[in-house]
Amino acid sequence: MRVERGRVEKIEPMPLGDEAAIAGKTIDLGGDWLSLGGVDLQINGGLGLAFPDLRLEHLGTLAKISEFLWQQGVDGYLPTLVTTSVENIHRSLAVLKRYKAEATGGAQVWGVHLEGPFLNPAKRGAHPAAYLQALTLDNVRGLLGKFADLVKVITLAPELDPTGQVIPWLKEQGIIVSLGHSLATAGEAAIAFDQGATMVTHAFNAMPGLHHREPGLLGTALAQPGVSCGFIADGQHISPTMLKLFLRMQRQAFLVSDALSPLGLPDGVYAWDSREIEVKDGTARLPDGTLAGTTRPLLDGVKNLAQWGLCEVEEAIATATTAPRAAIGLSEAMINQPAQFLRWRWDADKKQLTWARL
After folding, report:
1. Which residues are designated catalytic?
2. What's the pLDDT tens digit per position in 331-355?
3. Whole-structure pTM value
4. Which residues hold Zn(2+) (predicted)?
């Protein structure tokens, strides 16, 4: 693979028997691991800016966020717009479309993730109830407007659509359907997967837990081939014990940061839509204690998986690098895509995983 100016330019087999041709290009990793950078499919903002609040004057801040993410080892990301008014969503999508067309550096925007507003009110979590919408084809078309080509993933609760029209239509538009914030039964989830849903949003959170008689949305996803499950590994959203079981059952699991706008800022109290969130030790909560997200970078989750001993180091690395690429249909290395090489080192004595850019 040849990477020039931060982009994959060419993929070709390494010449055999020609040591001169590869002289100076061989790296002895000494037992370390090498990977491409991470891909974050669910990130809500950074450096004090929430993506649903985007305006044209924030183009410069978006560039700073992208550069910050690049320095944090992230190649590409999906800015995530949580539930808000249609006007806010359209305004933010317009800004992101312009930024995506003009951006030249940093982590690249590979599309947008709409998390809502088609969520089950009983599992809305920190999403404001006032802006939730019924899951109808007309409402979905109205929300996407002229931005269907920009939206890569949409999270919805499938049980809200009795017609069965929405998921097949979204699939026709090339949009990945992720199930979440849902009370779907196993039967309702199975129908949604048959209709074309291929993803689950932050597994375990905003959905019923696993039950031996009613596996529900998550249990059905774990038993379904071709379904990828996103998860958060901050020690707060999922118990490490349950996460260990989850990783044994789900071979297509991918890490997300679920990071909020204070990503890159210290702990404290911050404005969040019309409310406030308090960040302590990288975890964000509403005043009533509702878990709202994190302010930890994506690759911190990889370190946690290794430190907690939940999987092999190479498996932990894959959850943030190859697995999210596969979940959105990207090969491990795409021509003309941004890429950086990360070298990972495991200290067995300290039980600590670190990374550095090559």
Report:
1. 258
2. 654 556 667 999 999 999 999 999 9
3. 0.92
4. 115, 181, 202
